[in-house]
Amino acid sequence: MRLTVSAFVTLAGLGCAATLVSTTALSQSSANPPVRYAMDAATMSGMGAMASGGGFGAMMGMMRGRPPEAVRTLLLQHGASTTAPKPQADHFMPQGAGLGTSLRLLPPAKAEYEGTPSFERPSGRLLLYWGCGARAPKGQPVVIDFAKLAAGEMPPGLFTSGVNLPEDWTMTISGSKTYTSWPHGKDNKSVPANGSLLGAHRIAANYSKEINFTLGEDFMPPLQARTSDVAGGASNLAWTGLDKATGYYAWAMGAKGMGRGGTPTEMVWWASSKQQAFGGPLWDWISPAGVRKLIAAGTVMPPEQRDCTIPAEVMQASGEAMMVNLQAYGPQVDFAYPARPADARKPWNPEWIARVRFRSSTMLLPGMEGMAGSMGGTDTAAEGSGEPPKPAKKKCKGLKGIAERAAGLCE
Fold it and tell me: For residue 377, how many other CB atoms are within 10 A of its CB?
């Protein structure tokens, strides 16, 4: 059995399209809006680290008994209402970042944002569950025809939290006359494992004024999580808290059954929120103020929470194919020139605004967190020991089979 890529593309696309984040944060009286700069710094651990940059090296490390090392990523975005014949910007980083003198931001290639991706329309059912607890509450799951969801027929309230976050703003290509970003097709270098963002930052572009700020926040530590079985078939997701986390949000996706072409006939989507709220900005970046509102609404778990039980019905419906994700929203640092007046009644027309956001996330397969401890060196240790041959390996199945195959536990 394999999880159809088109099914996840559909879910991700619909989730990101349904936004609870306002695209504007400032009400300006000036003719031209301020230049905007956004810097997003993420730390990814677990299976997510392997998928997000660890690659073959992380896979080999797992086979030698080492869990994937955490991966750090950066997304830089610059937008302005002015233009230039060949727009470009340079972000001059602190030396400790280990990324060279500067990172060059360029406009996206047309292929990066134009055209409609083609994929096979998924079929089958989508089962929606939400909330922490050993048993799913009455009225769950909400069952959706996957073909209708792929066609854009979403049930009411699927991607909303009921909370408006006007203080958040997003960087978009369509929202700027000139937009540049990094990484891109000409430069996608990796952030070193020990790279630091602490220190002075300068952004110089040939289509806008220069931006300068000094950063006192750095990448968040890796998020460590694991699952354990609970009587009755549920699974308890527990994690080590991060000091600067502002809140946590967990979700899981799974599938079982097999239809034509090996695609699943039934998919499961669970979220830790107390109400029916999935994906969209909850997968993205949210300001500390926005997180506080979502905690009050029961959509996001508070920073002191350290576990959440995935209901037994979710585990049963997912079979062996389940991926669990946990996100820790982190701090945000805002800069502007000139600075916002202390008196909110006074007009404020900044030339530029800049925002740096942090988060840490992890991905795991239930029951496979200790896999690294059983990997690596087993065959070597057995050589010449006179031990009987090991039994034939089982067949790899489902998502868990991906990790088991990497560990040499199945074939």
Answer: 9
- Write b or e for each residue in 110-148: b if 16 or more Cβ atoms lie within 10 A of its Cβ, otherwise e: eeeeeeeeeeeebbbbbbbbbbbebebeeebbeebebee
pLDDT of 159 over the 70 cut: no
Q: Which residues contact 148 (CB under 8 A, 6 or more apart)?
A: none
- Residue 5, SS3 per DSSP: helix
pLDDT at 27 (0 to 100): 42
Query: Is residue 73 within 8 Å of residue 389, measured between CB atoms?
Result: no
Give the whole-angstrom CA distance, residue 317 versus residue 340: 52
Reported residue count of the chain is: 411
Retrieve residue 351's tokens: 């030339």
Report the Cα 267 to chain-centroid distance in Å.
Answer: 20
Please say whether the beta carbons of 117 and 111 come within 8 A. Answer: no
For 114, phi then psi, to 5°, come to -110, 155
Structure token pair of residue 26: 């400032």
Tokens 């290509």 correspond to 173
Q: Which residues pair with 225 in a beta bridge?
A: 239
| Residue 397, number of CB atoms within 10 A of its CB | 14
**Rounded to an integer, what is the distance from CA 59 to the centroid of its chain?**
20
Q: Output DSSP code: residue 281.
A: G
**Structure tokens that stand for 257 in this block:** 């059954």
CB 264 within 8 A of CB 146: no
Q: Determine the straight-line distance between the first and last CA of the chain, rounded to whole angstroms.
A: 14
Whether residue 123 has pLDDT greater than 50: yes
Strand 125-130, strand 266-271: pairing: parallel
- pLDDT, one tens digit per residue, over 15-55 is 443 333 333 344 434 456 899 999 999 999 998 776 555 44
Closest CA to 189 of 275, 102, 318, 251: 102
Q: What type of residue is 249?
A: Y
Q: In this predicted model, what pLDDT tens digit does every residue of 199-223 receive, in sequence order?
A: 999 999 999 999 999 999 999 999 9
> Mean pLDDT, to the nearest integer, of 291-297?
93
- Tell me if 169 sits within 8 A of 310, measured CB to CB: no
pLDDT of residue 12: 45
Q: What residues are paired with 327 via a beta bridge?
A: 249, 361
* Residue 228 exposed, middle or buried by CB count within 10 Å (0-12, 13-18, 19+): middle
pLDDT in tens, 181-202: 999 999 989 999 999 999 999 9
Residue 408 sits at φ, ψ, to 5 deg, of 75, 20
